[in-house]
Each structure stands twice: as structure tokens, then as C-alpha cells.
Amino acid sequence: MLTKKKAITLAISGILAASMSFSVAAKTTLKLSHNNDKTHPVHISMQNMADEVKKETNGEVVIRIYPNSQLGNQRESMELIQSGSLDMAKSNASELEAFQPLYGAFNVPYLFKDSEHYYKVLRDPEIGGKILASTEGKGFIGLTYYDAGSRSFYAQKPIKTPADLKGLKVRVQPSPSALEMMKLMGASATPLAFGELYTALQQGVVDAAENNPTALTLMRHGEVAKFYSEDEHTIIPDVLLISEKSWAKLTPEQQKIVKAAADHSMMTHKDLWAKATEEEVKKAKETMGVEFVKVDKQPFVDAVKPMHDKALADPVIGDLVKKIDAAR
Ligand code: GCU
């Protein structure tokens, strides 16, 4: 006969074995790193994607999101992904240019006519799709794009013409295109990680930066830069990536679900982004006292035109840029 103690021990080990085999067989947790706040629209869209993946895989695939560069800045996250120590990351085309030159096709200033042109290009299998898939063999692949608006200059003074940039140290992302753009506009470019920018602006390490307006409020840059000059020089998408090692761990069915959820979240993000930008601009003006300055874009367009011409003739990105132009 079983003693009571023995019966309880057996019951507990049975439960443990059942739950262990459940968690080992059934659950894959993917860690996703990014450098925005959890109130940022891209974080919210990625959470929507993660929720869809969890639901559609019956909890078998769980994506856990780590915001605010907790797992490293964008560059560090990419390196962790390539070495297979991190599953997923959100970066952007500017930063990715150093890992895959084809992303540089998106970094040509004044490339997109409007939002319709932009989405058409991102969703075109021959352009956006081709670029996402192009890093196969480099340790990661792209899953989808997220609208990150257009980028303009902000500083403690209005920047109405390229002449206003002369002698200014402008923080840029670590990308060859960003450096070239600043050179053509007459400024001196300082590449820095996004998370270091607030202090750099505050301490005068840089005089200006460029980004979409959410950086003013959600990264609090509006506290240290009171003029946002709307020259809208680039429209650079954010990009969701997964390591090839983590991708290979998923079953073909799970891969399909993850890809579909990523695509859905890209499209629901479109409206979310527009609404969030409007709200953040209002907040920047009303609660932070940031002045939004209208500028005549033509002198900026003229200053960087050589980049477009050069991109069209480039052996690596030329064909893509031609296709982007043709999709106008
Ligand atoms: C955008 C983008 C960030 C990026 C940042 C930057 O805001 O969403 O992921 O890091 O630009 O300028 O570095």
C-alpha cells in the first residue's frame, strides 16, 4: 500500500513532469529588443503583432518585447542577433545600411512623393520584399516595416535653409547616407546612438538633431531643442528583424503566422502612426513650448540632389532606386 507521503510525492512529480514536458515541447519565447519607449506607436504595433502570434499559435510562440534599449542600443542588438544571442530587434533602414547596403536605397533624401508612394514601395515584393529577404545568410532576415514618419531638423534655433546648418554639429545615425547628406547640406555630422542624444544636446556635444516629431516628446528632446524645422528631408522606415537561428526554430506553420502578424501590424500601424504623430506634435507645442517652423524645402532638395543622381548610378542600389522612382 502507498503511504500518504509517497502518494503526495508521486502526485507532485507527475504534475511537474507534465508541466515540464508542456513547457519544453510547446513554448518558444522570442526576445525582441528596441530603443523606443513603450508608449511609442511602433512599440504598440509590435505588441499587437506579438498578441496575434500568441493567439494564433495557441500560446506556443510568445514574443517578449524589451523597450528603451534595455538589451542594448540598435547596433548592439544587431550584433547580438547576428551571433544568435538575441531573437528579434527593431532597427531602421538608416542603421541597417551598415549591415546590408541595399537598405541605403531608402535613405536617399526626398525620395518619396507621399505616403501612398512610400507604402507602395515597402509592400512591393520586388523592392520592399526583396530588401527584407536580402540578408539571408548574414544571420537575420527582415519581417516587416513600420512607418516612422519623415525626419526634420531640430535645434535651439530655426533651420530654414542649408546655410543655417553651417558650422553646426548635427547628430546623425551611424549610416553612410546620413553622413553624405549632412556634408552636402554643409553641416558637420556626429554619429551617435539614439539613447545618447538627449545628454549630447543638453551638454552641447551636438547643436542639432533630426528625427520625426515623436522624438521631441517620447525621448524628451523637446526639453533641449525648442525649434523643429519641417524640411522633411528623409522618410526612413523602421524595420522588424529576426535572427535566422530563431527563425529556423519555428515550424513552417509558426513562421507563416509570425510573418502574417508582422504584415498585419504594418498596416494597422499606418493609422496609429498618423494619429500618434498628431498627438505628439500637439504635446510638443503645448506642453514643451516647441515651435514648429515651416520651411521652403527647395534649397534643401537642391543641396542633396547629387545623392539621388549618384544612387541611380550605384551598382548596388541603382536598380532599386530606379524602381522606387518608377513607382511614384
Ligand atoms: C527613429 C527610429 C529609431 C531610431 C531613431 C534614431 O526614431 O524609430 O529606432 O533609433 O530614429 O534616429 O536613431
UniProtKB/TrEMBL annotation:
Source species, domain of life: Bacteria
Extent of the signal sequence: 1-26
Which Gene3D superfamilies does the record associate with it?
A: Bacterial extracellular solute-binding protein, family 7
Record CDD domains: PBP2_TRAP_SBP_like_3
Q: What SUPFAM superfamilies does the record tag this protein with?
A: Periplasmic binding protein-like II
Does the UniProt entry include the keyword Cell division?
no
Task: Alphabetically list the UniProt keywords.
Answer: Signal
Pfam families, alphabetized? DctP (PF03480)
PANTHER family hit by this protein: DICARBOXYLATE-BINDING PERIPLASMIC PROTEIN, PTHR33376
Name recorded for this polypeptide: TRAP dicarboxylate transporter subunit DctP
Say which species the protein is native to.
Actinobacillus porcinus
Q: What is the lineage of its organism?
A: Bacteria, Pseudomonadati, Pseudomonadota, Gammaproteobacteria, Pasteurellales
Gene name per UniProt:
yiaO
